[in-house]
Every structure is written in structure tokens, then in C-alpha cells.
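Contributing: when you submit paired examples, paste them exactly as shown. First protein:
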Amino acid sequence: MTRNRTIACVLCLFLSPVVLFLAAPPAVFGNAVDWYSQHVVLGETIRDTMRASRSLFCDFIPQLYGGVNFYAISYYGYLRPDVLFAALFSSLEFAYILIAYAVFLMGLAAVACFFFLKANKFSWWICFALSLGLPCTTLFFQSHRQIMFVNFIPFLFFLLIGVDRLLQTGKKRLVIGSGTLLLFHSFYFAPACYWVALVYYAIKGGSFRASKPLWLSFLIIVLLGAPLWLPTGLYLLENKRPGAAIDWPALFVPDWKLSGLLYNRYGCGQPLLAWFALVYALFVPKTRPLAICLLTVFLFPVFWYVFSGFLYARTKALLPLMPFVIGLEAFFLQSVSHRVGVRNPWFLAGFFLPVLTIQNGVLWWDILALGVALCLFARKTRFVFALLAGPLLVWNAQNPPDSYLKKMPSLPDWIGKVQNESIALVDQSQLVNATFGLRANRSSGYASIYPKRYNEYIFDLLKVNIPINNRTAILDSTNPFYLFSRGIQWVQADTCPPGFETVAPSLYRATSVLPRFYLTRAWMDEKTWETLPFPDTLQAMIEQPCVSNAPGRAAAFQSRWKTESFPSLDCLVRAEKTETMDIALDPNRITVLQFDIENHDKEKPVVVDVNGMRNKLSPASSVYYNHNTRFTFMLAGGQTNGRPTIQFSAGNYAIKNTTWRSIDASMFQKRLGEIEPVQAKEGQNRWSLTIDAKEDAILVTPFSDQTGFSIRMDGTPIEPVRVNKTFVGCPVLKGSHQIDIVYEAPGKKAGIAMAGFGIFLAVCSQRRWKQ
């Protein structure tokens, strides 16, 4: 292949995603939920935190989840080139940097695929045709949906090219460079990609005895990536990300629809050519072992479960296998061009399986397109473009107009009023993670890894409603106990919550919420609190917060909840319906409505809305089943105009054990007179407080208890305590004190040291190779 032809192919491949991008209908190359609310907004937060910390290596984000370890969101782009570029040029809109980088990575993936196939001695036109079709597959859809599912693919191809180079020349640089970039782009997929590289090494004839350079390369990759994987891994272990409910028998039932291989946007998204190639390879002795392995993995969900790290059985875990699939496609086309056939009668029978199992209109057009392409084999140029028809059909089916974001959410015009204060954005799911340039503190947050203890506080202790299929997302709520205890000063919502006053349309400011830092002179020991029933626990958390490892110091607890004799909601629901309760809620009291849900059709969700406050029980098969079988609603008479309206979704479920209880709302204002607010000089991971305690007390902070906090009082280290089973606090003796609180992310310093050693080892190994 001539140099000019190679350059022309590379330019065409780089530009092909741009053509697809321009041909697509979106106003914004992104999705409203995952792409924007997580990848864009959290990428901005990573960038802003690095700038605020004036360091590449950060510790803490006080603006999300009420304060969280920085590595809770690190896998959304920490140390990725586009995020580092955005940190250098903060005036540029990160969403557009992400879009440009996503398109660039698609082009880079096509080029890397071309050189990977070329390194395996396939004809240039086969290399070009298959590489040209790669961006049309699931690569394009996930680039504007969940970019971390596919942004590692170009570096995976380069890693395999590096393995070839290592076998031929002993050079390790490409393996180390691509393997490290792969880890920085996708923390989740890296282990599977490294496994693919090891299998590829074995396929290409690499021996175990001669594998020392490869293992040394992987050791250097692990060391260089330690600033990301070590603190992120320690945070994962501490918080134990939940997996989905597993239907074990179903894991061993073959997926004859081939959703991990063909058409599906969450699998490899390949055209029918991939299946033909796998069937053909199955009958060729040279490729049979690989084909058997791939077919087994694609057919049986148990392997998806293993590849996903035992979280759930989803086809996205199979994306690292894409180079093997494309390699077999090239092998099939090369064999056909050389007229190397298979005489086994079962060979042709295997081709017809998709026709019997896949209910997809694209299939028939794909069969026609592949047939035309194979008929044009003799004319290489026509064949290349005919073969592209199948991937283009997949691209068109996978990317309908409604899969794109119509417009970018705009910055609220009132955001300047909430500078460095706490805000809740109710029913603003796109902005769940928005900190508006770290100007607003949020008690909410939505990332796949979340602070476990804080999550339990929100949903198990405060009983905040769960409006979606999972409880991974902590969304803002008008629950008055949530607003008060989290010290939320501003609320954007449709109705004014109790204890707030209207500042602008849909914007309200608090008249009575707890300060961020305060001293409490009365508290309950944790063991006594655990004996209280709900909702007495809510009252106790406000009036007499429980403290671990500290004897209680409060009067005997007296419940002030009143059981209301309102009508029961117990019934069997089959059809959608709306009811307005003919009851009068006292505007000066907070009413708690609770009932159990017994879902008789577990594959359908149950949704109940009470005056806009939603609770949902997700289907049993949901990826993150929320276990929300007891619905809780916090109602205030002023918000509901005294008469709640209840909407029930259609389904087949029973409502049981309805209870109505209420408490005087003045308890919040009264509590403010019993505490001592404390002013703090706040940084990103350091807080300095000057305290003049009138008597012995407990200091309460807004940060959930996480490994990494250290507290010094007057220069002396003291042991933190846990307040309300969740928050960091410490005992304070009567008098004046200087308290310094520092958070250091566990594993960060060790990760930096390991990366330094990795650089040293890489330099030494390179010099040794030269000698």
C-alpha cells in the first residue's frame, strides 16, 4: 500500500465522523439526561474543582452531596485530555469541548482500527471499508449518550497494535502510552481491555516465557494510572456500589436475539456482516477457538455479568470485544476475496439464525445491502461503499431525532443571588449536579458511585421520596426535614415550601434552616436513638441529634407526633385514577402520610403522586431496583391548600397500612434558638472555625462521615464523632477554641507516589532497551 493511499485513507477516516455529525439532525450532539446531567455537568465540576484547588490532584468537593470525596466523580473524566484542556481554558463552554472531543475520538477510533487491520496483513480496501463503518455502529450513539462506554475504543486498538509492535521489535512505548490513556478514559472498561490485550498476545503467538516485557508494560500502566484508580477504588470499596437484582436462571439462557452483537445500541451495534464472520470463523480451524469463545460470550448473559464486574448482566460489558469481531469480519472478507469456502452443510444453516430470532426491520435491508456488496467484490471501490450501507442502516436506526438534546439548559438569571449558599432545584433533573461554577452548594447529586452513609440518611432516615427507578440519584425535595436539616437556604420549585418566603417567581428563600456549622448543647446517644420508632426518629434528629461514642446529654425524649384520623387509602389499584381527599390539613403542622405497596405485577412500576411529590416502586427487573415498598409523603397544609390530590398509576397493586401523623411546624424555629451558629473560613478541603462555646457542646458539620477527615482543636488532634448516624462532628469543651478540619482523599498521595515510581521505571526500562 503506497504512502499517498495511506494518507488519503487516514484523512477520509478522520473526517467520516464529521460527515455523520453534520448529517445528524440534532441541535446539540448530546442527550438530556446522562450526557448533560452527568458527563457535561460533572466534567465541569472536575475542571472547576481543579482550578479552585489550584492542583491537578484534588481531595474534596463541598458543593455536591453536601460535601463528598473528589473521587466519587473521578471516572467522569478526571485526567482525561479534554477535561485538562478545559481546566486550562475555563472561559470555553465545556459542553462544546466535549462534543468536539467525542467527534475527534470517533475519527481516531476509525484510524486506529485501520492500522490495526493493516498490521494483521489484510488488504487495504478491506481495512478501509471496515474502519469507515466503525463510527456508524454503537460508537456514534454512545458518543452523545454515555461517552465513557466508547471513548476508550481508539486506545484499545492502539494497545493491540502496541502488542504487535512489542512482539516484533520489543518496543513497549505504544503499549504503555495507549494502555494508560485507556485507563484515564474509562476506569470501568480498563480491566476487560487489558484482558483482551493478553488474549490477543496469545493469539499472535506470544509465549509465556517471553512475556516479561508485556507484564512490565502492564505494571508501568498500573503505576502511572494509580492517581486515578487507587483513590477511586478505595472510595468504591468504602461505599460499595449496589448491583442489580439477578435472575440467576436467566443468565444461562442463550440470547438468540444477539443483542450484544447486532444492531443494539448498548451492545457492539454491528451490522449482519459480524454474524456472517463469526459463523464462517467457526468452520475454519485457524479461527475456530476464537469464534467459539466469542459466540459463547455473546450468547450467554452470565459472561456479561462477569465482564461487568458482577454488577449486572448488560451488553455494554462486551464492547471491549469489538476488535476481535472486526478482525473476524476482515478475515471473512479476505477469505471470500480469495474464494476460500466452507463445505460443511451446517455453515449455510448458521447464517439464517438472525432471520428467525431478530424482530428488526433493519435486518432485511441489511441482508440486501450485504448481498449487493458481496456481488461487487471484484470492483474494490464500489465494494467499499456498498459495504458501508449496512453500518449506515444501523446508524440511522440507532440515532433517531429524539435521542438528541434539543437545546442546552440555560444558566438561571437568579443564580447570582445564591453565591456560596445552599440551593435545592426541585424537578430540575438536568441540573441535579449543577454547581454553577462552584457558586452554589448542593445537598443533592447523581453519580453511579455515591456516599453510602449519606444516601441512607436521605432515604432511610429522612424518608425523602424516591421519584425514579433507582435510589442512586439523590434529587432535591420539598420534604421540610430535608430542607431544614441540610441548611438549604434557597429553593426553586413550583410552590413555596414551609419556612420559606417568595423572592421571585418559583424562587424562595428560607426563614428558618440550620446553619452549615453549629454547636448543639443537647444530644442523644446513638443506641437510645435506635430504639425510637419512625417518625419519632425525625423529631429526635432535629431536637436532640444522636451522637456516636458520646454519652447522651438531654432530657428524656417525649414524642410530639399526633395520629390523625383521616380516611385510609387502603385499596386495590388496577386502573389509573385521581382522588382529592376531603380533609383539612393544618397549615401550621407537617403531616406525614405513609402506606405500604404490594405489587402483584412485579414487571410494572408503581407510581403515586401527592400534590406533585412523587414516589415510585421500580420494576423488579430494573437495573437498580429501589426497594421502595413503603411510600412516605411529607405534606404541609400551606402547600396543599389543605386538601391533597393523589394520583395513582395503572397496574395491579395493593395499598395497605395507611397512616397519617402530624407535628407542629414551629419545632424548626424553636430549634434555631437552642443552637449556636459557628462561622467558618471555608476552602475546598480545609475549614477553619473560631469557637467560643458557652458550655460543653458538640460541633456539627454539613459533611457526611467519610474516611479522610481529620480534626485539630487548638493544634491537638481529636477523634471525630458521628452525628445523626451520618455527619462529621466533634466534642467541644466550654471556652474559646480554634478548630481546623481537613479532608485528604484516601490513596491520593500513595497514587501520586506510585505514578512517580512508574515514570522512573518507564525511563529505566527505555534506557535499558536502547543499550
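Second protein:
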Amino acid sequence: MARHLILLAVSATFGVTATAHSLLNVRLLIIILIFLCFLYFSVGLSLKALSFHLVIMGIFLGAASFSDHRNKTAYHGKESQFIITFTDQPNIDGNSLKGFVGSEKGERLVLRYKITTELEQEKLSQFLRIGLSCPAEGTLQIPEKNRNENSFDYQRYLFRQGIHWIFKADSISLQECKEGGNSILVSIRNLRLKGIAYIREHFPEESSGFVTALIFGDQKYIDEEDLTNYQRLGLVHLLAISGLHVSFLTGMLFYIGIRVGITRERMMMAILLFLPVYMLLSGASPSVVRSCSMAMLFFLLLLFKKRISASAAIGSTYMALLFFRPNMLYDIGFQLSFAVTFSIIMSSSIFLQYPKKSMQLFILSFICQLAALPILLFHFFEVSLLGVFLNVLYVPLYSIILLPFSLISLLIHLLLPSFGQPLISLLNFTFVICNKAADAASELPLASIPFGKPPFLMMLLLVISLIGLCLAWEVSFEKSKIWCGMIIVLLLLQYNLQRFSPFVEVQIIDVGQGDSILIILPFNRGNYLIDTGGQITFPIEKWAIKRKKFNTADDIIIPLLKSKGIHQLDKLILTHPDADHMGSAKELLDNFKVAEIIIGGWSEEQYRDMDLVTVAREKKVKMTVLKRGDQWVAGGARFAVLSPFEQEENKNDSSIVLFTELGGVSWLFTGDMGEEGERELLRTFPQLQADILKVGHHGSKTSSSAPFLEQLQPKAALISVGKDNRYGHPHGDVIGNLEGNGIKVFRTDEDGSIIYKYYKSSGTFRKTLP
């Protein structure tokens, strides 16, 4: 029965995904056909049983379709006055207030509000709470789609939660706010807020974020660097509320209740009442909902003296959640939680083959990592081989020591602060040691390996191989060796996929108001990045500083490079030392391997005192100064430096200007070169022409002059410019000149990243935004 429930859960998954991809999607049909063949030939199901699976697919297809049908907005986008109700924890981060709110029409909105003073920040921190309804004025904005290849699609993410708008508030009338009723739900959520505030006030900064994550499921207060280390090492699951926490809490409550004389039946009823409350207290994330739902099902059946296997429990819970909330399927936490839990339950017979506990723990860690592998590769493009070994150490450490210690420290400090303080100090010391060890481990070679985003066929073969491995391993390890070998071959192939790619690719990355251009030569013969983008920063008061600072290298460029399976940049070309062109170079060097940095001649002094130079020296990155006349050849392409040729007062005119032929067309990359630089370039190279022009200075009026365009005669112009930028780029005159000369214009503010891919005799441009 349990086995059939698991198989039915797979059919239910196909039903939900058919809604998003349509039943005519060839890939989905191939997967469903393979699954039905597996059921018929390997499992031995009859045609009648197969028909039942098709019925399940249809039922869940209908549930998902109905959910999508109801997922509509009541707003037109022109409304300006609202009554917003805080339905979730308000997040005050520096000078910004963010969070989810409900509107008077019963629709959820994403709130964005800029805090103007420290006094206002303090007032909001003390005043705002869940359940509070306030009049507010502002504008509705459509959430952004992913503006770069393989990046996070925020619009789709919100849509799947039933959210269609971002409410950018200009004002919130706090004096007119009213309580929205003191329901049990609101009371529990506000209790959670008070608990988080208590931990932040009384626990040291090094450990308060971790204690908050372990007890209340909120990771946003963890230091950004520590959280990144745990993510790189495959340990971040330890900081999410899961079955481990629920098992510990229910076990502890059950034991205490029995010891004080409460009957088993009453304790089971008490736990059934406690679990929904705990679900809300810990944030109701998909992993929390999954673990609490399974525990509730287990205790409910136990109360009626019925038993259910763990596999039947997870299958039933999965199908129930998917039926009522189909879009939960696309939540990464939901996918990882069920995949890992399913692998643990279904592989219990494998653990029994190894009598030693230490070996069992290693095998458990290994199987969990394998179960998460396809999901991690699809969403994050990298995995940690070191994580298999570190989980053997960190899982017991967190489950046996840190989780119980955190709960006990908090409870004792609440009751007896003087006795609780030494415990908190000891707990803080333990977290500091653990985090330092994780920081050191994250620098090791196998800590995080980028494989790139697998294509459909690779994902399909990898999943089949993982299932085959588990099925064969249940019989004996000897029979699983072939599947192990297949997985290793697939991973090696995926890791080296770029080496076999015959494509030339040029990508204008959308980094906002800045420049960053990725060039990929065929067969891994060269990966170049021209500029890194970056933001011009201004001094701000301490209270306004955000916990999480946006950086184009960490948030855009590095994830893109990893998704493409790029392991090293052969050349980082910094056209000139403006923040919007090289402001994220240091972060790129900190977190990605770069073989060589190229800067323009006569600009060495401007770079000398920059942090990126210090980091480059520490990492022994080669630094090269190029000027007019220098060139190099790679992958059959010649790259010629046309500028700079002398000292320039204007930094823009000292930009590195590159000319090359890629993908059968000629390219001119001009940095921020202005009209004066263009005139000098025409005088020196009177025969210069280029099929593709990277427009200088983001389309500013001071560049792309009419004589320059007339001589170059480009067929296409690429403009890297920020959406709704404060400078008014690109200038109308420039666009007029380009279009007047019959030049096709691509611009990142309207098109997102712009990708040119060439193979053999043909190449095409592709825009990320439709």
C-alpha cells in the first residue's frame, strides 16, 4: 500500500506540472511515458492500475487548473489609496520596510516603503505588528521578471503565491491604524514576533540569528557571510525547521507529559493541538508544514490505535498538500524537504546493511545529498562534495547539542535570566566555533563545485540513474556499482559540458545602470568578462544600512557564470575605473576564479589604492596593462585594442576600446567613450567598420555621434542601461540617430540581458524579456 501511495504521488506531480507546461509539452509527455512503462514493465501494474494513475493525473490537473483560475487580481494598477493589513512579520532592514500585506479587497500585496529618518524607523519597529490595518497611499507596480538568463523569476514566484502587485507606499498613516481583531491566528504570529525580538535583544549578535532560525524558522538575521558559507557547504538545511525539530519537540513534550503522570491518549491529543500552533510559530515554511502534517497524521492514527508506515505517511501528506496548494510544488524548500525525507524513508533497508552507526550516518548523508542533487543543480547550478562529510559532523552537532541547547537557553533565560545568561554565553561560544569551522571549510577546493544548469536530457538521465542506484543498492552494493559509475560519468560530462560546446556567445548582462559583457569562446578556449557593473554609493547614516547589500557580482554575475558551467574567467577586462563599470570587481575576485585582469594604459594610478588590487595580489592574479596596438588571439578570434593611446583628462575617453570578429560578425566594444574619443578613433582608423556596436556611455548624448555611426555602419547597436535610471539614458537623440541609420537597437532596460549565439554559419540575437 505504501509503495503504491508513493507511485500515486508521482502521478499527482505530473498532473500539477501538466498545468504549467500543458499536456502537449513533448518533454513532459516523454517523462510520463517513461514512468508508465516503468509501472507496467518493472512494477508489474495491470492496465486497470495504470488507468487509475491516469485518473490521479487528471484529478490533480483539475486541482491545479482550478487554483490557477482563481489566481486573479482585483486591481487595475492605477489605484493609489489602500487599507493595508500586516498579515506577516514586517521586515525593517535599514531604511526600508518590506513585507506582505493584505488589502481591503482581500488580495495579498508586497509592501515596499522607504523610511526617511531614524526616529521613524524606531517608531515603526515599536508600532507595527501583525493584524494592524493602516491607510496608505502609493502606487502599484508589476513585479519584475528575470532580467538575466537562468536568474530568479520574482514575478512567477509571487504569482504562485497569489500575489500580482508590489505596493510602493509613499505614506502610511500610523495615527489612523486600527487593530484588525485579536484572532488566535494573529495572536500566535505576534507571539512569534515577540520571541524573535526577545532573542535579538538578549542573545549575542554571533548566535542570535542562528537561534532565531532554529526556534522560529527565520534566517534573515543570520550574518550574510555565515549564511553563504552554510549554503556553499550544503549545510543550510540545518537552519530550517524540519522533521528533526518536530521529532525533538514532540518527543520531549511526550516524555515530559508521561513523566508527570498524563496519560498517553491525553498527551497525543495535546500534541495534536500543539503542532498547528508550532507550525505558525515557526513560520509555516514548506518543510515545517510537511513535517508537522506527517507528525499530526502519525499521532492521529495512533490515537485511534492505527498504524501507518513512514512511506505511506509521506505519500499521503504530499498528495494532500499538493491537492489543496498545487503551486507549493514549485517551492524549492518543498522540493528539497520531500525529496530528502522520501530518500531517507525509502532507503532504510540500505542503512541496515551497515552495522556501525558512524557508517550508517555517512550513508544517510550520502543518500540525502544524492536526493537533493538534481534540485540543487537545477536551481543553484552547484553542489558541495565536501558537504557529504560535513553533514556527518554537523547533523549530530545541531540535532543533539545546538537545537536542544538553544531551546533550553531561551526557556531558562525567560524564567531565570541570571541563570540563563551563562548558558547563552556558552551557546554563543559553540556557534562561533562552528561558524569559524564552516568558514574555513568553505575555502577548500571541494566546498562548492559549479556544474552549470543541466539540459533536459541530462536531468532525465541523472534522475533515472539515482533511482536505479537506490533500487539496486537495496539488493546489494555490488549491484549498484554500475549505476554509481553512470552517475559519475553524467556529472563529469555535465562539469565539462562547456568544453564540448561549439558555440560562440556574447551576452550583454543586465546589471542595471552599468556595463558587464560576457564573451564565451567555443570549446572553452576563453571566457572573458568586460566590466562588472557596480553601484555608485554615497555615505549613509548607520541606522539606514541594510543587512543584505545588493552587489552585481554576487547577485547577478557569479550566479550567471555558474549557470553556464564556467569555472574560471580567463580575462577580466576593466575598461575604466568608474564604479558602474568596475564597482563589483573586488567581490568577483573574492568569490570566483580569475586568471588575468586587464586595465587600460595610463590608468594604473587610479587603480593602485583600490581593494581589488589588494585582493588580486593576495590571490596572485596576473594584472596586465593594455593600450592601442596590443592584441591577442584565442579560439580563432583576434582581439585588438584600439584605445587608449595616451593620457586623457576625461576617464570616459580613456576607456579600453576592443575590436574583434566573433560568430561571423565584427564587434566594437567602446566602454564609456565619448564624442571626442570617437573623433580621434575615426581619424586614426578611417576604414573602421563594425557589424555590432556596443554603444558608449549607456546611450548618453555625449556619445554615438552621427559621423561615428555613418562610418561604422553597424547593423545592430547594444545599449547597457538601467531601467528608469536617473540620468535619462539612453538619450532620445542617440536613439534617433541609431534608428535613422537603420540600426537595430537592443537595450537592457527594455530587453533584459541580450544574448548573441553563433554556430557554424548562423547566429541570432535573443532577448531575455519578451
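If you have annotations for the second protein, write them as plain sentences, like these:
Residues 386-415 form the longest helix (30 residues).
The first strand starts at residue 81 and ends at 86.
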